[in-house]
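User: Sequence in, structure out. Go.
Assistant: Echoing your sequence, followed by the structure tokens.
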Amino acid sequence: MSNFQTDIRFLKGVGEKRAQHLYSLGIDTIGALLRYFPRGYEDFSNIKQIFDCSADEKVCVKARIITPIVEHKIRSNMTLYKFKISDGTAHAQVTIFNNKYLAARLHEGSEYLFAGKIGQSRFSFEMPSPEIREVGAGGIVPVYPATKNMTSSAIGKLVKTALESCEIENVLPEGVRAAYKLCDLRDAIHNIHFPKSEQALERAKKHLVFEELFVLRTGLMLLKNKRKINSQFVFKNDYTAQYINSLPFDMTDAQKRVIAECVRDMASGKIMNRLVQGDVGCGKTAVAAALMYHTAKQGFQSAIMAPTEILAEQHYKNLCESLKNTGIECVLLTGSLKTKEKQKAKELLASGKAQIAVGTHALISGDVEFSNLALVITDEQHRFGVVQRGDLSAKGTHPHTLVMSATPIPRTLGLIIYGDLDISIIDEYPRGRGQIENYCVESALRTRVFGYIKKHLDEGRQGYIVCPMVEENEEINIKSAEQYFAEIQDGEFKNYRVGLLHGKMKPKDKDAVMHSFKDGEIQLLVCTTVIEVGIDVPNAAIMVIENAERFGLSQLHQLRGRIGRGQYKSTCIFISDYKSGATADRLNVIKNNTDGFKIADEDLRLRGPGDFLGSRQHGLPSLKIADIYADNDILRLAGMAAANLLEQDPKLTKEENLNLRKEIILMYKKLHEN
């Protein structure tokens, strides 16, 4: 829009060298500079007298420099500049760190504004590294994420230049701005950088947060609508009941509900694009099997892609068992298969004699062909990139798509992360699953914990000990999986069969260890989070997680899901020496909750959205100003506004919606380039 897309090097005051520094901050255009929002503000508008200040209070004082500015070289890379200031009520010691340019601009006897935290020693006040401004240049001043080569004040000057030279057109249609009482975009951008008042800053934030979430939600809705194209695979008959009735166990009502939702999609005449989300062990794979059976009975093929060979092999074995005597041919395709086995599987798929393919990335190899691929399923979808999922779908002609995830996503985030998919949630556990007891203990009790592990192993069960790191790190004093394994193998557990598994091992070695564990040859597995997406070992009934404070709550829940998969009562022990504070609160959440969605909601509340939306694997633009948790109400309103607008103008072709359309195209173009 306007000159928003002009390369930043053409902005007055930038040039080639400075442009490189800006590029490193992700600022490549004038528009990117204007949307490089401050991380905070220094308020120079509310002046306080030094004598009235409290210790550690953030204040602004107007004071005169009353002593010479003295340079102190502490070491080769650290220089301090010290001087005293006075406002007539009290003195304060000011220290500037490593900023000779600022020190050179200050003069003894001159008056300035000083903003920052004020400390109080026994006899005087002190201000370490305050923001300093000329008197008269006060107000609310932006503080930007900066680097050594591009300071906050330098960025602020460039923003002012851009605002003076850049034409800013509204992204939000006038009707939306009026309905939600939002200001003009030029006012919003000006006041987010240089607020005229606290009220103006709040109005600017409201507009920009709403706009960001509105553009994202509208784009995802357009993408979802675009994907609802006609399908050549219209399944009129429902064969899933045949499969469900043939099983030796009863499916839960939640599983049956999700199957019915998928069957309805596949009979609609439109392509299915659905996510099945559910906690570890809720029975997603059985849902996938019912749909693959349903597809095969229609005369078409389906494929399921798993992130690891051992998980693919487990799916293949379970499918072969449940599909025996049905006449449905199932093949396995993984990288480690012998050449002859691979060739045979490929021939069966190309000819259509095999109706179901189970595999890893090997399924998307260039020489793999299908006869009539109608259903594509990706398991543990967060382990695959968007491109890989697309490559599998490209093996057919617009097949139905199902993605499965056992990674709990907070419901508020689900709207955004999976906004282009229809969502089904399995919120019940199959009957007969063992219960998991949870304990948080200090490392001083490790010997007792080891005794508890031995009790389980002596009863014929198996267990895991999870470590946060592969190799030792002396700086943070955490034992690595390798060191831990070496110590207990020759120590506490020398009479037991102990194995080691971590992500730096070769794939074939990892698979060999997991096979040994699954077959019961290994009793106790020392491992890292590589088991987070593991295999089903019903005999595993105890898990100990060392340095539990170093894991996210959702990750702890995923790890815990490796036990309690059989009939045995299971135990998970979180070892951490954090007895109070936020870390202890987080561990209490995992100890007292088994619902992955509740845990994910709490994880989001405690840690913020960065860990959820910061990952490129979700295939989403990163948010610059909105906070999914704090701005949940605005997210809901933005979704309603987007739905209303698309109902009136489904393709955004009306004149008043063209700028919004351009912004959406730009957002997803940048995402594709990344």
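User: And one key feature?
Assistant: The CA atoms of residues 76 and 121 lie 28 Å apart.
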